[in-house]
Amino acid sequence: MSQAPAFDGFEGSYLGDKSNLRPDSRLECKICWWVYDPATGDEVWQIPPGTAFADLPAHWRCPQCDCPPEQFLLLDSATRKA
Ligand SMILES: [Zn+2]
Fold it and tell me: How high is the mean pLDDT of the chain?
């Protein structure tokens, strides 16, 4: 049982799989490049600092372009050396 995923998606995209996210993971909107940083939270949606991306409410959208969180790209380089 080791089937590869049928669709790899964009490099860096987490594709809605929250198991790929860490509490301090930052993610970037692929439409407008707005970055969600858990250390900052989100003023627009009144998300308090320290809220992980995976813990954002289900109705959360990019505060700049209104795209859904599935469209965000995982920014991993800040916390892990390639
Ligand atoms: Zn956006």
Answer: 83
Q: How many domains does the chain have?
A: 1
- Write out the two tokens for 51: 């809220």
| pTM reported for the whole predicted model | 0.74
17: helix, strand or coil: coil
Report the residue count for the chain: 82
Query: CB within 5 A of ion ligand 1: which residues?
Result: 29, 31-32, 34, 62, 64-65, 67
Q: Give the contacts of 65 (CB within 8 A, at least 6 positions apart).
A: 29, 31, 32, 34
CA of 28 to the centre of ligand 1 (A): 8
The CATH number assigned to the domain holding 81 equals 2.20.28.10
Element (H, E) at 64: none
